[in-house]
C-alpha cells in the first residue's frame, strides 16, 4: 500500500524483464487512468507518473507484461490522503410543516482517513448562499425549525482530518409542508331526484402547501365501499347521476402536493329525491330610505324548492330594469340595486316569489330624501295665531323620558334665545322634547309638537384630514416669502386642532406664524420666512374617537429634511426598501395612541449595503511536499464566512529578497490546498491566503515563516499532541497529529514505541502507521509508557512521549441512557421507530418490557440493538401497541432503566355503561361513561342517535354534545325507543354502544276529580268556594288546583287564579266555576254556577263631547262593564260650572247612552257627571272633560274680515 498526500506527484517504477521484450500495459481496477498520466515503458522497466493527485487517483493499479512465452501481472495499491468524496444516496425521508429529515450513506472515498463528522447546510431557493445547519456523527439528521411553506436546497459534506470534502446536494428544491388537515364542516345545499349539491369549509391548516383540489367520495348507506365521484378546486360541487330514492354517504378529502388529508364525512346520509319547499320571502325591513344622488341596495332573503321565480313590481307595474336600476337573484337572496337615486325611485315595491307549490308576496316602501317640491295651492288661512297682544318674554322646555308618559320641566331658567343646551341626561336613554312660549302678560302658549324620540348618546367619529398632495413632498420656500399649509378635517365630537413643528406645538402667539381654524378647515400661515422656519410640520387632530395618525419618518444623513416612509404601522418592525446602495441613513419612529403622538426615537446612522460582510482570515498556511521548485500549502476555512458562502481563496507569496506580494493561483481556488510551482531553488518564501465571498475579499491570514525551496534534506519534526483515546484490560489506543515541519519530504509513516514503567529499554510495538494506533497483548494491571516518531525519506524525527504512563485496565462506565423524549406518538397504520442511544463499559445487556411484561417480538414488532443504541420498530401500529415501554441496561457496574409512553393516534373506542336516568312522556335522560381508549387525543364530542323500535332507521339527536349525558326531548308518548352513543375525536368516530329499548311514558297517572264542590258563603261582592281533595292523587302528590268560571249566559271559560292554588277554597264573582285538581301527571275538572246580585259598575268612558253650540252640547258614553246581575234601568246626568264645586241634576231618567243638554250659558265652561242605576243601586260616576259653550267664530272677527275684504276690493278697483 502506497500512501500519498493529495496534490503530490505519484511515481510508480517497476523493473521488467523478458525475452523477447514483453509488451507492457498499465491499468486500474476501478476505472481508468487519468489522461494526463505519463507512462514510459522500455524493455527493462515501466513507469507511471501522475502529477497533482487527488482522491480519485486512489485504487489498485495493474501492470501486465506479455510476450510469446507468457504473461505476468503485478498489483500496486495506492491511497491518496485527501478530503472525502461526496456522501452517497442523499435522500429526504420525512417532511412535516416545520422540519425535514435527511439520510445519506458514507462517501465512496474517505480520503484515506476516518470520517470525523458530517456538515449539513441549507439554502433558500431565492438565495445563492448556503448556511450551516448542524454537524452530526450519524448518517441522518432532522433539520428544524424550518418556516412553514419555505422552499430550500440542502447539501451534506463529509469531513476527515484532511478537510471538508465535496458536497452531496438535493437536486430539486424541497418545500417544507405536509398533507393538509381534513376539510371543515360538510353541508347539503340542495337535493334533486338525481343530484346532491354539497358545500364544505376550508381545512383549518393546509399543511404549509396550497390546496390543489378536493376529492368528493360517496358510498351507499351501511357500506364502506367509498369511490371518488368528483374532483374540484372550489368549496362546493354538484354530484350527478345518482339513483332516485337511494341513500348515500358523502365525505370530502383535501389534497395538496404532499398528499391527501383525512376525510371529513357528512354528518348523516342523504336520500336522493326532489326537495319540495313552499316559496317564502322575508324582507328584513318594510321601509328603506335613500338620499337623492346616493345608491340603495335592498337584499331580501328568499326560499323555495324547486327554485322559485322572482318578480319585482313598482306601484303595481313590473319593474323595468335599466343601467341604473337592476335586480340580481341568487339561490337564497334577491337584491334590488338603485344607483344615483332620484325622486321618482320612491314608491311601493312588491316582490312575488312563486314555484309549483304556490306563491308569496312582500311589499317594501322606498322613501327618497330630497329637498321638497313647491307647495300646492291655493293658500288657505286657518288657525291664525298671534303673540297674545304682548311680546314673547321667554320659553320653557319640557321633556318626557321613555317609557314614562308624563311631561316634566327640563329648563328652570327663563330661556330668551330659540336654542338651548340641556344637560343632566342619562346616556342611552330615549327622550322627547317640546317648547312652550310665554309673553309679558304671563300667559303660556300651547306646547309645540314633540321632537320625536331622541337617544342621548355621543356620536363618535375618529378625526380624519385631507391635504393637498403637494405637501407630501419636500416644499422649498425662499427666505422672505410666505407659505401656507391648509387642510380640511372632520370628526365627532369636533376634534382639537394642534399644529406641531419638529415635534413641538406651535405657539399661536408667535408673531410670524398664524393659525386660523374653522369648524371644518385649518390654515397655518408663516410670514417672512427665515432659515429656522424650515423643518417638519405636523397637523394633529384629537378627539375621544382617536388621534390622526402621525407617520414614521426617515432622512438621509446628508439631508436636513425627514421623509415619510409609512404612515400607519401596527407592528413593531418594518422593512424599508428602495434605498440607495452606499448611502448613509438615519431612521426615526414615533408612537401614536388616541391621546397623541410621542417623542421620536432616532436610530444610529447606517449604510445601505449587503447584509453580509467579507469573511475573516483563514488559518496560517502549512507547507508540505517541499521541493526545489514547488511546495504544497494547506489551510483551514475562516471561522466567520461573513454570512455568505465562501466562493474561493487567493494564495499569495512574497520572496524574502522582495517587497511585493504576488498571486500563486491564476484561477480562484475552491480547495483548501494548492501546489505552488515555479519557485526559485534556494530562495525563501512566505505565504498568506485570503477568502472571498459575495461581499468581496476578506483579510489575509497571518503569513507563514519563511520557507526555503529545496529538496528535503532533514528528518521531520516530532509528532504533536499524542494522547490516549481508549484502553482495556489488554489494549491501549493512541492518536496524535502531524509534525509542524515535515523536513521537506512527505511523512511516510509513524512508529510507536513502548516500555514498561520500570524498564529503560524502548521497543517498537507497531509498524509504520497513520495518525492512530492500537497496541494489544499488554498485561493487565501493568503501567506502560509510549512515544511516537515521524518518518520521512531522510529519516526519523525526535520521539514525542506520552505525557504520563498508562495503566492497562478496563474502563468501567455505568450504563447511561440518552433518551431524547419520554412520549412517542404515531397514527394508526403507520410505522413507529424508537431509537434509544446509550453508553456503558463493559457493553451492557439490553432488555425491553411493555406494561411490565417482557416484550414479545413478532414479524410486526422487532428490536435492533447495536453497540451504541437500541431501536424498537413497530410496523402498522394499532391501538394494542399503546402502553408503557421500559428499556433496561445491565453491566457489571450497574443497571439503568428508562420508561417511555407510546400513544397511537386513532379514532376512540366506544363509550361504556350507557344508563337511563329519567323517563317521561316527552323526554328521556341518558348518561354514559367515556371510552376507556380515547385514541390518543381529547374526545371532541359524542354523537347520540335514536330510532323507533318499529324501524331500522337511526336519526341523529345531537352530533356536537361534549358532556357524557343528554336529555332527549320531543318524544312521542307511548313509543318505544332505542338509543346509541358514539365518541368522536380528530381522527374519526368510534363504534357505537346501544341502550336497551325504553318506552316514553309518565311514571304516574293524573289525579281524580276534586270532591264535594260547593259555595260556603256568598255576598254581593264575592263568595267562598270549597271542595275536598280527590279520592286518588294518581301516584304523585297533588301540587295545586285551577279554578275556572263563566257567566251563566256565556260559553267562554276563564281562569280565576293565575298560579296553582294550594288551598281548597277561593272567593270569586258571578259565573260558572271549574275546579281543576293538578299533579305532575295531569289535571281533573269539576264545576258550579254562581250569580252575584249587586249595583252596576261605573259607565265606561271616555265621555265624548260633540255638537257644541252657543247654548248646548251633546254627550256620549258606553254602558258599564258589569250590570250587577240586573239590567240597567236608567242613567243620572249632572253638571257644574268649572268656577264652582256644586253639581246640579240635569236628568235622572236617561235610558240611552247619549243626551243633548240645552239651556247652557254662552261663554261659560262646564263639566258633566254620569251614573248608571239598576234595581240594586246606583253606580260610581264618570266625569267628562271640560268644555266652553260658544260659537266657533265671533261677531268682531266677522266684522274685521268684511272690512278687510272691502279695503282689498277698493285697492284694485
TrEMBL record:
**Keyword hit for Plastid:** no
Q: Name one GO molecular function term.
A: structural constituent of muscle
Is the Acetylation keyword given for this protein?
no
State the signal peptide span: none
Where does the source fall among the domains of life?
Eukaryota
What keywords tag this UniProt record?
Immunoglobulin domain, Repeat
SMART domains membership? FN3 (SM00060), IG (SM00409), IGc2 (SM00408)
What the entry lists under Pfam families is as follows: fn3, I-set
Domain Ig-like: from-to ranges: 1-77, 279-365, 815-901
CDD domains, alphabetically?
Answer: FN3 (cd00063), Ig_Titin_like (cd05748)
- What's a GO biological-process term for it? cardiac muscle tissue development
Q: One GO CC term of this entry?
A: M band
Q: Which residues form the Fibronectin type-III domain?
A: 86-179, 182-275, 363-459, 522-611, 617-712, 718-811, 910-1003, 1099-1192
Instruction: Write the protein's name.
Output: Titin
